[in-house]
């Protein structure tokens, strides 16, 4: 759980600084700034998080500033993950740490309205002390060149540079060059909007080569109203080469080793046509076709003889995505209806690449093994959703879909051929009964059927049915006082087609009831009480669908209670302190009798601080200190906290 929380928190902060990357190219005109004019954007953030024995640091800085004819862009990101592993009888306490630092610096000098000098420095340093795979890697790139506008709407940027690349014990370096051109921002001709971009980038870090190439062109024409047609073509090539790792890690010296090369080519074409039948009705048609070729080669790098033959592989993926849809929207925008028919297809083929010195019989064996991975996937889906404004205080939402997936494997040794059917339907109603009371109900159901065509896997054929109902009530009797109650009832039934013939296959059921209450009670204009209650009861058992009977095997009861005193001396500052309690009780069933099995509890104080420093920054802190008590009577103290600092100028 801590890994998921850490990843989500990191993504939230990084999303604020996604304006630049190591391959970022400035998309700006070469128009001169007014004398003495200074434009700047400075953003920074620090996130620290501790969850149990996992620690995460994340820092980011983003600077984009202009002083007359000089501009500077800087993007810096650093993150560190530390996991403390408790001591074991035969092992001491361990500290597993990984770090990553990415920085990009791009200064630029405007010489004239058509020409600007540009340089860039990008760097990545990675280290991992968790003893899994590659432990250290880094690269540093330096470029210099110009931005040239031969005409107002097209810019060309040739760049020359040098790259230092490290992978474990290997240090490589060599020349780099990058040539890019683009429309800036687009070209208009006879009502058509044309866009395009080209990039050719290559790094010669002997004995390896790295490439990034792009060709992209697009065209769009708006005829009238919402009627428009757009075309897009794109080709990309990415080539990555790295030293292959042995079972014990990277080879200790850059001789007599293998270099793995991966070349990924993607060709894509798409067309989207929107046709306005009337002011309220729009029909759309989309078709997208793409082909991907992934070649993997093993190249021997050394003076001796290669220890073993290693064949390269080729993977080709063909994609077809298409849909037809129609949408109707009322004049006031309160109601709409949409229906879509969609068809997707993916054809994936695998093959081995021959070697000059390899025996023919060995190649046929390896190639046949690769071909067992071939597969063809076809998915057809009919879906729709609609919203009806029944009155100013009542709304009804309806959604549903019916889809079929066919997964075919042409090779006889691959027995994963299957068909899948999925049906879903959902209904949500929202009612404003008064200015103080809102009521909503969501009802949903789904049914899926998985059928394996081979007798070797048919024991896994099953039907899954899910029913769900969620009523919700929000009551606000006066200003700043609100209570929200949400109930959920869920039933999940999975029935296997041939459980009578397979002793280890058993149909099962899962049922859940939950109740969530969130209440805020203002005591004064600056002090409030917040209450939170979450109760979840769920059980699992063996199911006999034909008789609709079950034998319950285990049950759980989760309880969470929290209360906070919140103090807001001003709109920009909020401080809350309180306590939180959680317990989980487990039960087992023996001879249809429910018996207590175990119980775990945690209790501790909590604290939250949020301070918005005018328009320049935000400081937030949340933490809780809990004592966990297990069913055997043992206790453990665990501090948890999250600190987030954001600054913007």
Kindly describe this structure.
This protein has 649 residues and is mostly beta strands. The chain is built from two helices and 29 strands. Among the domains are: 1-89, no CATH class; 507-649. It has helices at 2-14, 360-371, and strands at residues 38-51, 54-67, 70-85, 94-110, 115-128, 136-151, 154-167, 170-183, 187-189, 192-205, 208-224, 227-243, 257-276, 281-301, 312-329, 336-353, 375-391, 394-408, 418-432, 437-452, 462-478, 481-496, 508-522, 527-544, 549-570, 573-590, 593-613, 617-629, 635-648. The chain has a 28-stranded antiparallel β-barrel. A hairpin with a 2-residue loop joins strand 2 and strand 3. The chain starts with a helix and ends with a strand. Mean pLDDT is 87; it is low at 1-36 and 247-252.
Architecture blueprint of SSEs:
Layout: H1 2-14, E1 38-51, E2 54-67, E3 70-85, E4 94-110, E5 115-128, E6 136-151, E7 154-167, E8 170-183, E9 187-189, E10 192-205, E11 208-224, E12 227-243, E13 257-276, E14 281-301, E15 312-329, E16 336-353, H2 360-371, E17 375-391, E18 394-408, E19 418-432, E20 437-452, E21 462-478, E22 481-496, E23 508-522, E24 527-544, E25 549-570, E26 573-590, E27 593-613, E28 617-629, E29 635-648
Antiparallel strand pairs: 1-2, 1-29, 2-3, 3-4, 4-5, 5-6, 6-7, 7-8, 8-10, 9-10, 10-11, 11-12, 12-13, 13-14, 14-15, 15-16, 16-17, 17-18, 18-19, 19-20, 20-21, 21-22, 22-23, 23-24, 24-25, 25-26, 26-27, 27-28, 28-29
